[in-house]
Amino acid sequence: xxxxxxxxxxxxxxxxxxxxxxxxxxxxxxxxxxxxxxxxxxxxxxxxxxxxxxxxxxxxxxxxxxxxxxxxxxxxxxxxxxxxxxxxxxxxxxxxxxxxxxxxxxxxxxxx
Amino acid sequence: xxxxxxxxxxxxxxxxxxxxxxxxxxxxxxxxxxxxxxxxxxxxxxxxxxxxxxxxxxxxxxxxxxxxxxxxxxxxxxxxxxxxxxxxxxxxxxxxxxxxxxxxxxxxxxxxx
Lengths: 112, 113
Fold this sequence. Notes:
heterodimer, A: 0% helix, globular, B: mainly beta, four-stranded antiparallel beta sheet
């Protein structure tokens, strides 16, 4: 299964934008890019997903490179509640829905 | 409200005992998953099931067992054969016909004394 690579940690100031990168150089044409975040001692929650075009929702934006080998999760104005571990994973359409690989993710710290 | 319920939230077990973690969903999802998370680590897949009465091993299935007798339920048994069972266990579900979001439960924290 295709794997993703993310920085271990990032820091941001409150109310500033945050760009969280993810590399997925072995992505296949049927892989969707998903982002989840996990607060301490909680289950991960869905943030956003996309295939080729950039996507926006109330939580964040997802910018996908033209060759799809990388993507960036954008939090437009970070708040203290955005401090979490962010996971970028690939989910294949039409194939097995199992074995979704979660790496260590990026731990985002937000300073007041 | 629809969602996934895991129980118990905290569980203590003596070495050599089997323990079963419950996972129930009312989202009408076909697929369900069990993950294990150790401190400071990502999620590792234990078992997954795409349909009732069928399940597959994930990356770390040894020492664990599951059943899927009902669509809404996917219990995980941590057996005495699991050498290091102390961890945070997460259950998730999703529809198999699309690439939409995974829904996670709040997790069960197992400590072996």
